[in-house]
Amino acid sequence: PPEILWYGQHPYSVILEDMLIVSDYGKIIAYNVFTRAINWSYEYDRGQPLFQNSLIKVKPVIVANSQYIAFQTENKTICILDFSTRKKVAEFFVSDLRNLLIEGNYLITVNHKNDAKCIDILDKCKELWVQSNYQQCSIDVVNGQLLFHRNGLNTLTFYDLKTGNVTLNVKAPEKAGFNYTNFQLSDKYLFVFNLLFDGKTGAPLDKYKEVSKVTGGGYIGFFNKFGMEGAYLVDDKEYSFKTKCGRNFNNFIFAAIRK
Predict the structure, then answer these.
(1) In degrees to the nearest 10, what's the CA dihedral of 134, 135, 138, 142?
(2) Is pLDDT of 100 > 90?
(3) 2 vs 5, 64, 106, 184, 232, CA distance in Å?
């Protein structure tokens, strides 16, 4: 049976390859994720309080990829390290930070108003653009693009990291259900709201009124909600099918696996 190797709580950490990189006040420690042996550590100067407990604590959020490690220090700065050499690449002040995201040489800072700012690390941490948002939302990087899921509007908006231009915008149909983790973007399709949209224009594929992902690749699309007929879409091909049993509101759950 599976065996638990170890257990720990590290709220500000990131797993990259076989390393667990933990951000704490005054230091970064990289552990072997299997043995918990310390691979390396990085310490920085902490702010000196004027009197006991006067130093304002900020969350030591951290993000990393194969090029950089970026984290918020106790001094309310963002420090960026070269992943290979662990030498400091840049450091700059931030007045408000909730989260960090990274893709290649682009670092995205998100404040508590959900404003997202994109910074080019290679260009002396130049600020490229800011996307302001005043609604409750989820923000992530998907397929090299910044994704805003605006909960109130029930929309998905993708932004180009270099320019900040909108590359794709999709709004949920009325009464559409949505699980934020249950979406998928490819060059051809965006699967979300249990529907398919054109992956480049965001236009809905109205031919399919109900869609599900197939384990192993592709999508099952029904021509009607709770219908029996549809097509299996995979590798730019469509294969028609018809279920043997009827489907309705009380009998609509199914599963599909590609061999």
Answers:
(1) -60
(2) yes
(3) 9, 29, 38, 30, 36
DSSP string across 23-65: EETTEEEEEETTT--EEEEEE-PPPPPSSTT-SPP----EEE-
* CA nearest neighbour of 70 among 142, 113, 141, 21: 21
CA distance 123 to 12: 27
- Tell me the pTM: 0.84
Copy the structure tokens of residue 208: 């399919």
Please determine, for residue 48, whether its predicted confidence score (pLDDT) is greater than 70: no
Tokens linked to 79? 């420090």
Strand, helix or coil for residue 136: coil
Q: Are 210 and 167 in contact (CB under 8 A)?
A: no
38 vs 252, more confident: 38
Cβ-contact 242, 220 below 8 angstroms: no
Per the CB < 8 A criterion, the answer to whether 136 and 152 are in contact is: yes
